[in-house]
Prior knowledge:
The protein is of the alpha+beta class.
Amino acid sequence: MRRVLLLAVLALALPLAAYADSSIDVANRGGTITGSSAGLSLTGSTLFAFGSAVGSNLGSVSFTTGAFITGDAQLGGTLAAGGTFTITGNWTNGVPNGVIFSGTFTSTPTSPIRWELKTLANGTHNYVLTGGLVDANGHVGATTQITINTGKGSFNGSVSLSSGDTNLSVPEPGTLGLLGTGLLGIAGLMRRKLWSK
């Protein structure tokens, strides 16, 4: 009985450990995007905004995507799920130190990972990467939009990043509490079945 009571208290305490906000906006700039039929990657990009924290260097953002399913890096297309996406902080302006988010790109039929070529009115080309992200436990969803401008030329395999915006969606405390309570109920049912045998 004491164990069940302890588990109930822990399940109700879960929300206290979660962020109070339901989302955190992250922004980065600079670095180099490289691409081929095997996918895209970003290295050397500087984190300059994390929620309300803003500074010239708060950490870094890097990623790799899956391979192109349709199209290619020069004309645009869709990419396979997988790869990596990492946001690292450096303890500046209250940003956590170390890996803040580590996940992979995720894709659904209604929300694929896209690399789109957009020609602007002045004739220059923007390439925009959009896609969903999920952490290793599937708990934190996120969306990202990475933009580069190649001037009047096309993407030739490597270019500097213009801007990156990522929105980390953190589960609301009530959702975590319901999850914890549900898990506790399942554990209780399993325990009852084992004891009744």
